[in-house]
Amino acid sequence: MVSREHKKAALHEKLQLLRSITNSHALNKTSIIVDASKYIAELKQKVERLNQDMENAQTSNVHHNPLPIVTVENLEKGIFINVFSKKSCQGLLVFILEAFEELGLNVLEARVSCTETFSLQATGGKLCEENGESIDAQVVEQALLKAIRNWSGNADQDYP
Predict the structure, then answer these.
(1) CA distances (Å), 50 to each of 72, 105, 121, in order?
(2) Which residue, 94, 102, 126, 142, is most buried by CB atoms nearer than 10 A?
(3) What's the angle, vertex CA 31, arms to CA 5 and CA 27, rounded to 5?
């Protein structure tokens, strides 16, 4: 009897962990698992998009396209942003973060690499989404392209 209660408690704990990882608001086991499946499918789509973006970046010639490649896509809840360049772009991250701030974009998750290449993948949404207003992918993309143009105009300056 104690073993059964222990297993039940362990299962409940694991379901709550799964619920928190997937940002699920579900209360029953089935709904938590369905939300987890959707979350996994969304992650797979992100990986496919990133792989496609990497392939596109590798096939494009850096000399013909010296500026980073920007892709922005709407997600079910929020937005996905990918910026990639085959070369290091010193100081670009500052310009991108300023663009996020100007848009009122709340970055929920981000990965950035600025060593030999520049790579930024981020998910986010509007700071004030209570009114049902969501951010448009094209608006974000245009703001990022403007930030990149501003950065390229200042690229010869030294950054800390």
Answers:
(1) 11, 21, 8
(2) 126
(3) 60
Amino acid found at 78? G
Going by C-beta distance under 8 Å and a sequence separation of 6 or more, which residues neighbour residue 123?
75, 78, 79, 80, 81, 107, 108, 109, 110
Rounded CA-CA distance 33/30 in Å is: 5
- Taking the CA atoms of residue 141, residue 144, residue 145 and residue 150 in that order, the dihedral angle to the nearest 10 degrees is 160
- What's the pLDDT at 127? 58
Q: For 118-151, what is the HEC assignment?
A: EEEEEEEEECCCCCCCCCCHHHHHHHHHHHHHHH
Q: How many CB atoms lie within 10 A of CB 156?
A: 6
40-61 residue pLDDT tens: 998 899 888 888 877 776 665 4
Whole-number Cα distances in Å, 45 to 38, 63, 106: 11, 30, 21
